[in-house]
Amino acid sequence: MTYSTPLEGEHHKKKVCYFYDPDVKGFHYGPGHAMKPMRIAMCHSLVLGYKLYQKMEIFRAKPATKREMTQFHSDAYVEFLNRVTPSTVNSFMKEQYMWYSDNVGDDCPVFDGLFDYCAISSGGSMGKGAARLSRNKCDIVGSGAINWAGGLHHAKKSEANGFCYINDIVLGILELLRYHQRVLYIDIDVHHGDGVEEAFYTTDRVMTVSFHKFGEFFPGTGEVRDTGFGKGKNYSLNFPLRDGITDESYKSVFEPVINEVMACYSPDAIVLQCGADSLSGDKLGSLNLSMRGHANCVKFVRSFNKPLLILGGGGYTIRNVSRTWAYETGIAAGVELQPEIPTPIDYYEYFGPDYQLDVKPSNADDMNTPGYLDSIKRIVLTNLRNLGGPPSVQLTDIPRHPVDIQMDDPNRDEDMLPLDERPRRIPIDPSFNSRRQN
């Protein structure tokens, strides 16, 4: 059976690096918590079922180390995450107050394996996702790297926030900045990408663009007038949305804004955070995007043929999250997935009763009137046009770790590195191989 067809206009093969660690499904925030890492495994089961491994290179990235995390986060905060456990959390009251503040408890609980979870989510974004893009190990034209376990955009330098502990996005962008003058960050999560914006608020080397619900809604930031400071003035763009935005309305603002960003900023690489809580029916979201409306953003950004790092993010109706990310994995790989979910796959029962690869919009009212969207779009485009062209940056050599130096050697790829220094390809499950042959 054919599970996918080439995308229209797809004329050349594009190399895509996809990162997945099977250990991610074993982490639990706790009973009743909205964030469920199992959604990553559900997505991966669809990726395998649709035979997307034939279109991509699948890797198990080396988890990020404490040293790598401290390229953005404070040493003390990373050490706290490394040491704290559910049984010892009460002995860290001072640190808990400093680094969790009002977020301790329900939002950012201390759970078993917390640091390992952070290391896995960061490793695919930073150590190998962005690194492979920068060193041309993934396709330099069009696609790039995918890490659905990443995209945790709320974490701050010394603070956990909004279900996020380590900001893998910032770490990935810092890696990209070693090789690229300008990096564009785009966020389509229902929540404002506050942690990433804050990290790069005063620089022109990163432009952040966030489309999000605004108002009495977490995290309460991302007003259209928040545009950066100092050297970073007008390099932070925010498009606040109201409840119920539809595919058509979203496209009417997303594409013109991103078109103008590409023209005015001319980024060398792009990071796209694909938070799926902007989908219709999300448990914590209030927008009304369909799966295809959400995926249109991936398709549109991909069309600019720039090195592209695609990340996950929010998303709390997990059957819809996994469907959408699998579909977007297909888009990144240059194929359109068929609507019938293949069988047998793990988690198949979660996709009933229709067993279709689809997330449909609801009949909710769209509170984003054309007049409102046009007024916000006009402000954002005016700020962009005031930039006066893309900034120029003099790149300097950055000291590398020994492993980095080896990766830069064109005659010594990862497969030639010592086992403990190379990213590990995911072996296809033997039982899946037997099913595939039937």
TrEMBL record:
The keyword Repressor applies. Keywords: Chromatin regulator, Hydrolase, Metal-binding, Nucleus, Repressor, Transcription, Transcription regulation. Pfam families: Hist_deacetyl (PF00850). Residues 392-438 are annotated as: Disordered. It is an enzyme of class 3 (hydrolase). The active site is at H154. GO terms for biological process: heterochromatin formation. InterPro entries: HDAC_I/II (IPR003084), HDACs (IPR000286), His_deacetylse_dom (IPR023801), His_deacetylse_dom_sf (IPR037138), Ureohydrolase_dom_sf (IPR023696). It catalyses: N(6)-acetyl-L-lysyl-[histone] + H2O = L-lysyl-[histone] + acetate. Its EC number is 3.5.1.98. One of its GO terms (molecular function) is histone deacetylase activity, hydrolytic mechanism. Substrate binds at D107, G162, Y316. It is found in: Nucleus. Residues 398-427 have a biased composition (Basic and acidic residues). The keyword DNA-binding does not apply. GO terms for cellular component: Rpd3L-Expanded complex; Rpd3S complex. Belongs to the histone deacetylase family. HD Type 1 subfamily. This is Histone deacetylase. It comes from Moniliophthora roreri.
